[in-house]
Amino acid sequence: MNIRSKTSKNNRQGSKKCITISALATLVLTGGLAVQSADAHWYQWYRSTGVVYTQSNIPTPNGNSILGFRRDALGTLTPLPTASFPTGGAGIPNAPIVGGGPVAITAFASDQEVIVNPEKTKLFTVNSGSNTIAVFDIQKDGNLSPVEGSPFPSGGVAPVSLGLAGDILTVVNQNLLPQIPAQEASDSLPNYTTFRVTPRGRLISIPNSTASVPRGSLPTQALISPNKRLLFGMDAGTGLLRSYQILPNGRLQQSPNSPQKLPPAAFPPNPLGLTLGLQVHPRQPILYVAFTLSRQLGVYAYEPDGDLHLLKTVPNSGLFICWIAINRAGTRLYTTNPGDNSVTVYDIAKDPSTPVEIQRVVLRGEMGTGGAQLTLDATESFLHVVSQSAVNIMPANNRISVLKVNQYDGTVTEVSSSPRLIPSVNNSFPQGIVAN
């Protein structure tokens, strides 16, 4: 009798352990989205720790670096023991390059300056001031070590954006930085160019892969489609939307109706027409475009060959909508609006072609600071935003803001420890952000 009672008790305890393990397994399989139990809550809390990287962008010879921060489960950022990893190149100074006043295009008119591969074993970043690309191995503890041969020539002048399609790396060379004397005399044109990435991370130039665009185009982004067969780009200086097919040999072939002029809705009546951010839906052939000064989000459908068709535009309550991020499920879209230092949240679950704004959050920070690039972490528990000081104003206000993502409705709340200040060196400003 006693043996049976003891056995029954052990079985009940074993069942309880199995239920706990099952709950954790379910959470893993659903990507941390189905938070149903105390076990699941604990596991999501545990998984939400990680590492955040941004680029210091210091514009002195060999002064550029990647800054690394450990993020705890509450969203607090703490510098890694080795907080700075030299890129072997130079960044670019914070100075206007086109226009003036509130519509100045500054040197941070770009996105995807720092990216990681899907396996999160390699980190790539631009050295905009020295025309090179740095590649790092990501260690298990978050530290970075440069791969052999890094940094590599970018194939042009002033690289500002990177896109990875399998083992093909696309580089956007913007070539519009007159404040850098060494680049003023260059005869090269802005371009998109591709490289083969070897298993060890070395970059091998692909012959005849460079697609040049006219001088003054100000290309800003190398956005890759989910199937890795298309590249989308924006000429912020001329208001043209571009699409390319990425051929099996790594070369770029311009799509049928590329470049495409933006619709009149993208431009307000008087100021400079400026368009910056691009993002693709993870499941549907839809491209989202930030019509910056008109405070609208453009929605395009795209064909398998990259042919683009405007579907509609929707309003954004923020000022100067710029960069865009989307969660993996394709249910929420986030934008940064540097004009009022805010983040806007859209519902795209019901109809991805008709984003519905559900929230706008103003980030903490002093006047003269505006949110720029943004990214979700691997578990989509936190949204991270690089905020940069206005041109030559209060450079001490460079920072990273961290927002907690509500796992039920996708809205965001800035965590109590946010923002994390980033010191300015020689009028530097951070650019690009990734979070593991």
Automatic annotation (TrEMBL):
Looking up InterPro entries in the UniProt record yields:
Cycloisomerase_2, Lactonase_7-beta_prop, WD40/YVTN_repeat-like_dom_sf
> From which source organism is this entry?
Anabaenopsis circularis NIES-21
Q: Which family does it belong to?
A: Belongs to the cycloisomerase 2 family.
- May I ask which residue range the UniProt record assigns to the signal sequence? 1-40
Q: What is the lineage of its organism?
A: Bacteria, Bacillati, Cyanobacteriota, Cyanophyceae, Nostocales
Q: Which EC number(s) are documented for this chain?
A: 3.1.1.31
Keyword vocabulary terms for this entry: Hydrolase, Signal
Q: Does the keyword Transferase apply?
A: no
Instruction: Please give the name of this protein.
Output: 6-phosphogluconolactonase
- SUPFAM superfamilies, alphabetized: 3-carboxy-cis,cis-mucoante lactonizing enzyme
**Keyword Zinc-finger: yes or no?**
no
Single GO MF descriptor? 6-phosphogluconolactonase activity
